[in-house]
């Protein structure tokens, strides 16, 4: 087992090293930012209004509202990576890793927009009458000559595997561990409870997942941010020094201090990018699966709504975690302390057991929501691979694996989850580069026509007819 774990770690280091995914992720995000004329900055406020205030695109076709598609994607991404993953990045790469998480998020918003756009643009209606979109569809349909089919199948298989790693085992284990540490609940009890609850939700399909996440996800994020705000208010005098550390160390590396072994610029970049993508999943293609089910009148509109998920995840939630860990001074306790670092940070500023309790409950809720979101991603890919008959067996196995994750020690699963993420991202990023011309052309045409995103369903239908684009 030790040799397998070592081999897995070596492969993961190559995939996430300076010659594969790091340049591919950042390069794709930068290229799409250029091709789309920085759409993530130009249209951010309009996109936030469309997703969080308007919430529904009246007259649009789909299975769930734009808001529910957004919260389903948020449910899948706002998970343990936002708490433990951020602490791990800083404990290994130093405070400067946070800058590279921000950069990954900002350029990743263009990638997230593009994959969500394509998820709607090439979606299909399955035999049950439900919308089905995502990289397994747009890679195959958008890229001809067999290469697209290869990329689509590569993504499909990698996503199914990843759904049991990032979306299940690690999250279930985090829930069970958190409940045991804070409330002395036996992991077997947690496992049984999750088995029943997840199974019940999955029976309702995407509609049930969308309804639960639309109410559940905003509340869990709000509770965590309020707790973080209190900590930062109490440590306000440390914020200027923390920001100085963050921006200085991002480009110089971090010297050894306390239990921190020191890091180079390369390590800071590697940890920031790897944990950034683990947190917000921009470029992985997963959120495009949820976007493909959204009720929308045009792919551009859902693409804009979906890109706000990366902004909320990385620029807001990740930033709160990073600043709390750095301002409280626990960031230099070493990599071995990463698992409890955020809880320790909250505990240093909040009275009694409040700090540890808030973090433990946040981990439980974040992880549970991630399981829900990824169950849908994995099921859609299973249907693509095995047909409509693949749905029920997948749900059964996925639910059973939740119990396994809750009751088993998982020493190598985090490395496995990182690797699976990378294998998903590679075919999707290649596809985004190949299809970047289509994305840029149709995005420009729509935004030139409806710059304020106020067009109704009838107007959008007329525009699509005029453009000769029948994406439905």
Automatic annotation (TrEMBL):
One of its GO terms (cellular component) is plasma membrane. GO terms for molecular function: amino acid:sodium symporter activity. Pfam families: Na_Ala_symp (PF01235). Its main location: membrane. The chain crosses the membrane at residues 15-34, 146-167, 187-209, 216-234, 246-269, 311-331, 354-377, 397-417, 423-440. Keywords: Cell membrane, Membrane, Symport, Transmembrane, Transmembrane helix, Transport. InterPro entries: Na/Ala_symport. It is a multi-pass membrane protein. It comes from the Bacteria. It is found in: Cell membrane. Gene3D superfamilies: Amino acid/polyamine transporter I. The keyword Repeat does not apply. Belongs to the alanine or glycine:cation symporter (AGCS) (TC 2.A.25) family. This is Sodium:alanine symporter family protein. It comes from Corynebacterium kroppenstedtii (strain DSM 44385 / JCM 11950 / CIP 105744 / CCUG 35717). The gene is alaP.
């Amino acid at each position: 087992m030790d040799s397998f774990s070592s081999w897995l770690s070596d492969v993961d280091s190559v995939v996430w090293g300076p010659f594969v995914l790091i340049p591919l992720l950042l390069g794709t995000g930068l290229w799409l930012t250029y091709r789309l004329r920085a759409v993530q900055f130009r249209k951010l406020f309009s996109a936030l209004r469309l997703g969080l205030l308007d919430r529904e695109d009246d007259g649009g076709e789909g299975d769930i509202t734009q808001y529910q598609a957004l919260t389903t994607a948020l449910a899948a991404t706002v998970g343990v990576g936002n708490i433990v993953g951020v602490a791990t990045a800083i404990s290994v790469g130093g405070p400067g890793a946070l800058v590279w998480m921000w950069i990954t998020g900002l350029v990743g918003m263009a990638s997230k927009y593009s994959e969500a756009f394509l998820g709607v643009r090439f979606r299909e209606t399955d035999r049950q009458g439900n919308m089905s979109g995502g990289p397994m569809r747009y890679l195959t349909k958008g890229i001809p000559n067999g290469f697209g089919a290869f990329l689509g199948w590569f993504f499909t298989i990698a996503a199914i595997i990843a759904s049991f790693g990032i979306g299940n085992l690690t999250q279930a284990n985090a829930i069970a561990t958190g409940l045991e540490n804070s409330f002395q609940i036996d992991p077997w009890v947690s496992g049984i409870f999750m088995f029943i609850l997840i199974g019940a939700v999955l029976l309702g399909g995407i509609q049930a997942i969308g309804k639960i996440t639309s109410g559940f996800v905003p509340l869990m994020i709000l509770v965590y941010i309020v707790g973080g705000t209190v900590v930062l208010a109490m440590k306000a005098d440390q914020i200027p020094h923390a920001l100085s550390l963050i921006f200085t160390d991002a480009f110089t590396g971090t010297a050894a201090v306390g239990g921190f072994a020191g890091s180079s610029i390369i390590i800071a970049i590697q940890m920031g990018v790897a944990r950034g993508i683990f947190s917000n999943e921009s470029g992985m293609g997963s959120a495009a699966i949820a976007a493909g089910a959204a009720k929308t009148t045009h792919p551009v509109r859902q693409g804009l709504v979906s890109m706000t998920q990366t902004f909320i995840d990385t620029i807001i939630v990740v930033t709160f975690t990073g600043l709390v860990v750095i301002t409280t001074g626990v960031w230099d306790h070493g990599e071995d302390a990463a698992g409890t670092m955020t809880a320790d940070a909250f505990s240093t500023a909040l009275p009694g057991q409040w700090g540890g309790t808030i973090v433990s409950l946040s981990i439980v809720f974040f992880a549970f929501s991630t399981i829900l979101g990824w169950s849908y991603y994995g099921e859609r890919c299973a249907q693509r691979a095995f047909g409509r008959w693949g749905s029920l067996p997948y749900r059964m196995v996925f639910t059973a694996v939740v119990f396994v994750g809750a009751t088993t020690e998982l020493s190598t699963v985090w490395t496995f989850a990182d690797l699976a993420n990378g294998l998903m991202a590679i075919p999707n990023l290649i596809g985004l580069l190949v299809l970047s011309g289509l994305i840029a052309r149709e995005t420009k045409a729509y935004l030139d026509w409806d710059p304020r995103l106020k067009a109704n369903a009838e107007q959008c239908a007329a525009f699509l007819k005029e453009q000769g684009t029948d994406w439905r």
